[in-house]
Amino acid sequence: MKYLKVKRDTGIKPPRSLLRRVGRAIAEYDMIRAGDRILLGVSGGKDSLSLLAILRHLRTYAPVRFELGVVTVDPQVPGFDPSPLGDYYERLGVTWFYERRPILEQARQRMDGDSFCAYCARMKRGIMYSTCRREGYGVLALAQHLDDLAESLLLSIFHGGQLRTMKARYLNDRGDLRVIRPLVYCRERQTADFAHQANLPVIPDSCPACFSAPTRREHMKALLAREEADYPHLFANMLHAMRPLLTEGDLEGGVDTPARQ
After folding, report:
1. Of 40-54, 92-106, 145-159, where does mean pLDDT reach its minimum?
2. Does domain 2-250 have CATH number 3.40.50.620?
3. What is the DSSP code string of the chain?
4. Phi and psi (nearest 5°) for 86?
5. Domain ranges (residues) in the chain
6. Residue pLDDT, tens place only, 30-52
7. Is the pTM of this model over 0.90?
8. Could you give the C-alpha distances from 22 to 18, 85, 118, 145, 149, in angstroms and in order?
9. Upper half-sphere CA count for residue 31 (Cβ side, 13 Å)
10. Has residue 210 got a pLDDT over 80?
11. Using CB atoms within 10 A of its CB, is residue 254 exposed (0-12), middle (13-18) or buried (19+)?
């Protein structure tokens, strides 16, 4: 485990379109409360780095005060090295926890009837939970967006026969950590555009094992893209349909998330 804490700062102002959607999600789902210590899972992908910039900006004027740190879980997959991001976090003055775990090797030995992505997602989530407890953070922030939620809904319907998707906010099984997804109203293209325009230090294909072959999730992404080309309001309609699922029970559950931090 690598620990980094410094006091420098640089500012990147995200576009209003992203700030409005994140602010709305935070308010509607009571994601951030006064005095929260939030640990954000950041892999180095466009979504998590965009969310880091958004939360840092919101912290400058939000009506409630909260602390923000980041955690990176390195699954030790060949070709994936997030360690250079340490210099970026140092410039930002962000507390960073770098957790290296041989998840790929463990998957080869223990995985039975599961996909690597699903196994990796569960393992990463457990490691992030442990880091939160060890370092005194009560809230874990994850960077899944509306596209992820829509893909998860279709996966659950097609392959699980259930109406389930990722939740905007929930308590973990032990009830000691609140998990939030502030990007649930944001589109993937918005984070991609922001990351490009702001020149964020994105690590391409943050998990080569996930991107080396087509997956069910990639199939759903392509299906949704084809449908949206004919029905521009597709994602707005899907969000309306998913709303009852986003906090259902307020406890841990839903489909396995992509291994995205």
Report:
1. 92-106
2. yes
3. -EEE-----------HHHHHHHHHHHHHTT---TT-EEEEE--SSHHHHHHHHHHHHHTTT-SS--EEEEEEEE---TT---TTHHHHHHHHT-EEEEEE--HHHHHHHH--SS-HHHHHHHHHHHHHHHHHHHHT--EEE----HHHHHHHHHHIIIIISS-----SEEE-TTSS-EEE-TTTT--HHHHHHHHHHTT----SSS-HHHHSS--HHHHHHHHHHHHHHH-TTHHHHHHHHHGGGSSGGGBS-SSPPPS--
4. -55, -40
5. 2-250
6. 999 999 999 999 989 999 999 99
7. no
8. 6, 24, 26, 10, 15
9. 27
10. no
11. buried
Query: Which tokens in the block code for residue 135?
Result: 């370092």
171, 252 in Cβ contact below 8 A?
yes
Query: What does the mean pLDDT of the chain come to?
Result: 87
Take residue 85 and report the two structure tokens written for it.
């991001």
Find out whether 219 and 204 touch, Cβ atoms under 8 Å.
no
Q: What are the backbone angles phi and psi of residue 102, rounded to the nearest 5°? A: -80, 60
Amino acid identity at 31:
M
Residue 99 burial (10 A CB sphere; 0-12, 13-18, 19+): middle
The residue type at 242 = M
In one-letter notation, the amino acid at residue 244 is: P
